[in-house]
Recover the amino acids of this structure.
């Protein structure tokens, strides 16, 4: 090989290596998530201590802590068939497709084409060329183009899309947790209404007997007609209050039906008389762990990472833009195409460097920096909100538990007072006004105790949601896992392989039957009855 040719080859190789070396130049700032200084422990204290070290983390199926088989079955149905959750999963799949689209810009784009044309001129046309009036053209060609990513603008776009897909995976996890918590909270509310209705029914039966007693007293001229009117007012107002609770129960049942992909008209949950849930033990861990447990915090962090990549893309716009193109083929007035004389080709490169654009690119860079700082502020706000929700949950569970225990004692005292005042009234010692006051106080205390117990279970559920429901940031798909297809994959395009725990049915038409009934699993309180009111009037 001559020295001249060797120098040309070395120069060409050096140019190629330099180009590929430049393509590794990343203009995005080094990304490091914020490091917050957080307290070493929570200020609020939960009412229940963790039993064993194995209980220091929440299970992903946390609703089983309530020990209600019917709730377990409905949660499984929600996870499989809820339309809002299915839509969130599809958004993640769409984000994965965008990753492939962005990555395709890193690879050469190839195309081919062919064409054939037959033209005939009119033989009577004025000034017609004295030759063939028909002409046939055939050609086929290939095209290739590639844009060297000298300044990593394309690579940063790919990385941003991967982080966007991770964000959507975190959004799916948060949507799933929120829907699961909403279902559990609605179900607890439903059972709270059941317990209230049972208490109202029991009290109504008691008031009907009390009304009969006052009527007997009136007949024997042992009581005034005013006592009968008071007893009637107490009975009828309680019946009206029960109807209000029944309406609220029906509305709550409708909400549960929608969450489980069922029409409210065909969905009915059999009532119970008491709330039979287990009181869950909710391990709170330490505040620093919360940033790894909350899907919405992880989503905000991934959004911040994307904004950091956008700065690199904005910076790359200040540098030269280069693209390479090549094309070739054959063309002839006939079918003898495979002939070197009929070949054609073109190749070249384009180079573009901005000189003056009135501050356009500087404004875009300034916008990118500001957008990044905004995401940092949003992330910090999300972290603070998550801390507040946990502290609120710990405070609620602690105070509501104490209040519930106090109200249980108050219920025992008011029940005893109600029966004693009625006994005194029958004996002619007490007044019916005292009996009415005791009845109102007893009913109000019993209903209030059930309302507080309902709020306590709902506070437990809210605390579990605030703690992330057993989720961990390690469950997010990796950057590489966000790719849904490979460059040469041509099959299995309808539904990519699930990653990151985001899996849904490939056939949404399977869930279009909305007339399904409620699950048949027993509730936690099935077979349990409300304790009777000791009625002295029967003895």
């Amino acid at each position: 090989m001559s020295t001249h040719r060797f120098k040309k080859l070395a120069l060409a190789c050096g140019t190629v290596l330099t180009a590929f070396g430049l393509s590794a130049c990343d203009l995005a700032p080094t990304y490091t998530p914020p490091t917050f200084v957080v307290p070493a422990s929570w200020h609020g204290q939960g009412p229940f201590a963790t039993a064993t070290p194995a209980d220091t983390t929440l299970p992903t199926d946390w609703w089983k802590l309530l020990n209600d088989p019917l709730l377990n079955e409905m949660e499984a149905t929600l996870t499989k068939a809820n339309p809002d959750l299915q839509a969130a999963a599809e958004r993640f799949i769409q984000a994965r497709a965008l990753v492939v689209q962005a990555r395709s810009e890193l690879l050469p784009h190839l195309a081919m084409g062919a064409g054939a044309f037959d033209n005939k001129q009119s033989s009577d046309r004025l000034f017609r060329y004295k030759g063939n009036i028909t002409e046939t053209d055939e050609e086929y060609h290939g095209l290739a183009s590639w844009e060297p990513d000298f300044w990593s603008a394309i690579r940063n776009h790919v990385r941003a899309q991967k982080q966007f897909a991770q964000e959507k995976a975190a959004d799916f996890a948060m949507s799933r947790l929120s829907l699961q918590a909403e279902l559990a909270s609605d179900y607890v509310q439903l059972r709270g209404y059941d317990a209230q209705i049972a208490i109202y029914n029991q009290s109504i039966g008691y008031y009907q007997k009390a009304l009969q007693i006052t009527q007997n007293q009136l007949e024997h001229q042992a009581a005034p007609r005013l006592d009968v009117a008071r007893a009637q007012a107490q009975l009828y107002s309680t019946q009206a209050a029960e109807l209000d609770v029944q309406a609220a129960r029906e509305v709550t049942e409708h909400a549960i039906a929608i969450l489980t992909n069922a029409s409210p008209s065909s969905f009915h949950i059999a009532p119970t008389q008491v709330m039979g849930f287990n009181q869950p033990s909710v391990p709170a861990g330490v505040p620093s762990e919360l940033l790894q447990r909350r899907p919405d915090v992880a989503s905000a962090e991934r959004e911040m990472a994307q904004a950091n990549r956008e700065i690199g893309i904005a910076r790359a716009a200040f540098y030269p833009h280069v693209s390479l193109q090549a094309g070739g083929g054959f063309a002839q007035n006939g079918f003898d195409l495979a002939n070197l004389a009929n070949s054609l080709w073109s190749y070249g490169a384009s180079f573009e460097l901005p000189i003056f654009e009135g501050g356009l690119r500087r404004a875009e860079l300034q916008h990118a920096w500001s957008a990044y700082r905004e995401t940092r502020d949003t992330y910090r706000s999300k972290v603070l909100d998550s801390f507040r929700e946990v502290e609120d949950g710990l405070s609620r569970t602690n105070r509501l538990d104490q209040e519930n225990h106090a109200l249980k004692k108050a219920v025992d005292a008011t029940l005893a007072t109600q029966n004693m005042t009625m006994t005194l009234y029958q004996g002619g010692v007490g007044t019916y006004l005292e009996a009415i006051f005791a009845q109102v106080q007893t009913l109000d205390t019993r209903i209030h105790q059930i309302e507080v117990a309902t709020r306590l279970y709902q506070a437990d559920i809210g605390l579990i949601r605030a703690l992330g429901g057993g989720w961990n940031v390690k469950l997010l798909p990796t950057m590489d896992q966000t790719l849904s297809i490979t460059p040469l994959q041509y099959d299995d395009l309808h539904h990519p392989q699930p990653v990151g725990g985001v899996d849904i049915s490939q056939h949404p038409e399977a869930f279009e039957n909305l007339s399904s009934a409620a699950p048949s699993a027993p509730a936690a309180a099935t077979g349990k009855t409300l304790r009777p009111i000791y009625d002295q009037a029967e003895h």
Q: What stands out?
A: The CA atoms of residues 266 and 515 lie 6 Å apart.
